[in-house]
Amino acid sequence: MPGLSDATRRRILFGGDYNPEQWPEETWPEDVRLMKTAGVNSVTLGVFSWSKLEPRPGVHDFGWLDRLMDLLHEGGIGVVLATPTASPPPWLGHLHPDTLPRDADGRTEWWGGRQHFSHSSTAYRRHAAAITEALAARYGGHPALTMWHINNEYCTYDHGDEAATRFRRWLRDRYGTLDALNTAWGTAFWSQGYGDWAEVVPPRRAHYLRNPTQVLDFRRFTSDMLLECCTAERDIVRRHTPHIPVTTNFMPLWSGQDAWRWAEEEDVVSVDLYPDPRDPFGAQEGALVQDMTRSQARGPWMLMEQAAGAVNWRGVNHPKPRGLNRLWSLQAVARGADAVCYFQWRQSRQGAEKFHSGMVSHAGERGRTYQEVKQLGADLARIAPHVTGGAVAADVAVLHDWHSWWAGDQEARPSREVDYPDVLRAWHRALWQAGLTTDFARPDHDLTGYRLVVVPQLYLLTDAAVDNLVAHVRGGATLVCGFLTGVADQDDRIRPGAMDVRLRELFGIRTLHEWWPLRPGERAECEGGLRGTLWSEELEPDGTADETIAYRGGELDGLPAVLRKGRAWYLSTLPEPDRLRALLARAAADAGVRPVLDGLPDGVEAVRRGDLLFLLNHGREPVTVDLPGTHHDLLTQTTATDRITLGRYGAAVLKP
Ligand code: GLA
């Protein structure tokens, strides 16, 4: 099976989405000149080129792409060639209105934007396969081709009639009989019992709350249908070029795809990452997504898209201040990326993304953005031989699962204030601040090697996952588990006692009497100055815990907020950030897990990749970092002994 190393060949892939069809052909040689000057060695072509490649049904125009592929090859620039199926040409929707998706309210999503395709439409799938086949046949042997990029950010939903047909088929495969479906969905509630498969529909607009397991299954189904579209195209290109790796780009922490499952189907895992330059936690957001992507890839991964400057889709869109683009790119490499790419090469002059930055901004070659890109290209070339292929060391696993997210994030629950991604962020950020490098894992993955496992929140846990966690603790690992975990089974059926009994025994909880969610801004005061946010619980301990921190005051006065029984911790609230960090640092220390470096100044990140130590200063002020011994900084080609000073947004890549 080919992998990322087949495309990188000891280089860090550096480049971005290139949409030359938006520009007169005279611009292309100039693009190649600027790419070469900046050290660009890879571009992604054709992501949204379907109507250019197939202007009329079955009529192809490949001349322009032939010339581009040749031009790029002559310039020494490799091509990640995309199947253009994320944005069908207007003729497809016009000819086959059934290719257009419908939302839960029955409204059609029309062409004129992008991603207006139904994953369930047979006509869409047929036409997508045909253009993929034509591309693969034509360019499979082209020397510029280094990787295939299937579609773009799969993210569509469809509640229409063809989707309904496929949903029924998917449910038959899952449940076999209507009886089993009725049991799983709990259709005794509100007279929802199904007597004929034809009665089953996607969760469309309803008068009042919809069946939660129907919604959960629809999310599972949607992820699976999109994956079917993706693997169908993958199989076509693989047939032509078994030696060329295949990827599809994920959106970061996106709810619509079970990315654990998807990653298994890819040769290269890639992600698009756009932290807000004005977000004080932008670096931590980046670290989270990078850790998750690396874990899905089980090794080096590809940063397929980031912005060289501003995006165009937030309320207020700030550019990156000088130095930040380089810093965040090096952060991705530190956390396992062997490719640093952008959306997009040249900033558009027309279309919906003309205010979105590019590596070459409207200011052109003299612009600060391009000048910084050029500097980054040189930095990446310098470190590439030492870093590519290197593994990132992590003793801590954060558990995350899409099915649990889908089940927990529904209507009519104890508190709408609980936002799963935000809870995940709070925990990962606390670990980041404690200087601990983390992988992510699924709760049923093999956790061997992780001395500390944390579960920010897994509302739904299968029996196999519960057994896995319990066995891991029994095997000597430390587990720290957040509230609202182990509540539901795989069908979103509340477990007896509202928390799996095996987990209650693990933590020393006899009875979970009630959940007491907190209002925004409300705090649950606890012993020792700990203050809980978002949530609290009325727990009756069984007397076996070794340590507890109790609630103070209010209805829960004296009851445990935090319990530790041996190596298993349970947090029935979300402690304020400093206390969460301290608690996780303590659990890590007890588990024998050390931070990457002791005594790091605030805002400085340290990550080990292979034998390299990356130091990243996310602050705007220079800092001095104490170092063990003498290191050689690959970026500056200087030697540092015992300490090193990093400037504003400064970085060092140190070799012992
Ligand atoms: C996504 C898409 C790109 C572009 C960028 C803009 O990542 O894949 O085509 O729209 O967003 O940020």
UniProtKB/TrEMBL annotation:
Belongs to the glycosyl hydrolase 42 family. One of its GO terms (biological process) is galactose metabolic process. One of its GO terms (molecular function) is beta-galactosidase activity. This is Beta-galactosidase. Keywords: Glycosidase, Hydrolase. SUPFAM superfamilies: (Trans)glycosidases, Class I glutamine amidotransferase-like. Its EC number is 3.2.1.23. It comes from the Bacteria. The active site is at E153, E305. InterPro entries: Beta_galactosidase_C, Beta_galactosidase_Trimer, Class_I_gatase-like, GH, Glyco_hydro_42, Glyco_hydro_42_N, Glyco_hydro_b. It catalyses: Hydrolysis of terminal non-reducing beta-D-galactose residues in beta-D-galactosides. It comes from Streptomyces coelicolor (strain ATCC BAA-471 / A3(2) / M145). Residues 17-382 form the Glycoside hydrolase family 42 N-terminal domain. Residues 394-593 form the Beta-galactosidase trimerisation domain. CDD domains: A4_beta-galactosidase_middle_domain.
